[in-house]
Design brief:
There is one protein chain. Helix content is 83%, strand content 0%. It is an all-alpha fold. It has one domain (3-182). The two termini are 21 Å apart.
């Protein structure tokens, strides 16, 4: 398997990881049930959204095949820049102090929009989606589970830095796609 897919899965999971750390900060005690619930919600949405994006992209692929590498670069760079911006802006995030089904659905959707864009990019690049979608979901599950645990211990230190790292990874991957398709490298 290409390491790029693993890096994308890791980068996409940074939002979920960050929200999970926030949950750990809010609850202050680790509960396996909460960590599993959060991991399952975030992992499932992170796995489903690339599929949705990929299937949507397949239907418009012939219309934009000459620009696919530019679109993939633009989407990944935009997502990466947005992640970095959101991690350093002054506003503090709301704590996930009550992991109800409604709250988890809303957060799962919000943290997986980036995965939809990645699925769209994969369709433009004609990358098969099943393995990446499963990997993205599994990585999001485990990092979300770990985030709940680490939240009480290291959350204040990690929260913003992981989103910056994830954003930088997406920008680098988008740049690599563009450079390879333009024949520069």
């Amino acid at each position: 398997m290409d390491i790029t897919i693993g890096l994308i899965a890791f980068a996409l999971a940074m939002d979920s990881f960050s929200v999970s750390i926030t949950n750990g900060l809010a609850t202050k005690t680790f509960k396996v049930v909460n960590a599993l619930k959060i991991g399952l919600f975030f992992g499932s949405f992170q796995a489903i959204m690339p599929l949705v994006g990929w299937f949507a992209g397949i239907h418009v692929l012939d219309l934009i095949s000459g620009l696919d590498h530019w679109i993939a670069f633009s989407l990944l760079a935009f997502i990466g820049c947005r992640m970095i911006y959101e991690s350093v802006k002054a506003e503090s995030k709301n704590l996930l102090d009550s992991p109800t089904i409604g709250v988890l659905l809303a957060l799962s959707l919000a943290t997986s929009i980036d995965a939809l864009a990645v699925g769209l990019s994969f369709s433009f690049l004609r990358i098969p989606i099943i393995v990446p979608a499963v990997l993205i979901g599994v990585v999001a599950f485990w990092l979300s589970f770990l985030g709940v645990y680490l939240g009480g211990k290291l959350g204040h230190f990690l929260r913003n830095r992981v989103e910056v790292l994830g954003g930088l990874i997406l920008i680098v991957i988008g740049t690599r796609i563009l450079v390879e398709h333009l024949g520069i490298a």
